[in-house]
């Protein structure tokens, strides 16, 4: 297995995206791990944090087809998927494919469109296909939707339903940068432009990494750790609805991809601890408490595989 190559690919991608946005090294790796694991990502952050630029730079460095859909209240489902258009030259209807037919699709400000439009993404995210005029059309491979939303501007927005949120493998919450990073952003006026971004990862590289994910070793003790963590969310204080078995399966996929991009052919407990908040923070319904805080508390309470062995011996 080309574990060394996988790490080199990750390093090249991170270095290239850093030409446009800085301070988001972990977020770039999260997005790439999500793509390699076959998932979709939701990015939340205040205006001005370069959410859109991050996604555009990420897609350009990958050399995949890219489209951006600006979600607005007057958007129609056919504006995303495409529609049947009458062609007078042939005297019949023909399919005009929408912007969803790309490898990387940026759903910008996804919560600004009504539920009917949001639901147009469900089939694409779950089945990797869309239906136009009663006929199903397969989407390009690899395929990934990266959606963004502003967590504070709620006027004129439509909150994503739980079923829609569950289609996202991870939710990344962006915060304000550190003082040093903000100094560098202010100092370098060329940041924010993707014109200098070059393609450093090929489609073949991505397909090879996706195939390698299945060969990553996960010990039974780590599988048990994931299961125990998921089950703990259902009995946690201030939690109305815990995570489902699907969350456990998704976390299991993501930790494999993360280990691969880290240059390893095996998963360690720290992978689970690092990635669990991104997988679970939008999959549990709380009674008003911050879901991320609850998840971090559970990570401290649920014994890791090593701790379990110690407890058994005692």
TrEMBL record:
CDD domains the record matches: AAA
Gene3D superfamilies: Magnesium chelatase subunit I, C-Terminal domain, P-loop containing nucleotide triphosphate hydrolases
Alphabetical UniProt keywords: ATP-binding, Nucleotide-binding
Domain of life, per lineage: Archaea
Residues in ChlI/MoxR AAA lid domain copies: 231-286
Boundaries of every ATPase AAA-3 domain copy: 40-170
SUPFAM superfamilies: P-loop containing nucleoside triphosphate hydrolases
One Gene Ontology molecular-function label: ATP hydrolysis activity
Protein name, as recorded: ATPase associated with various cellular activities AAA_3
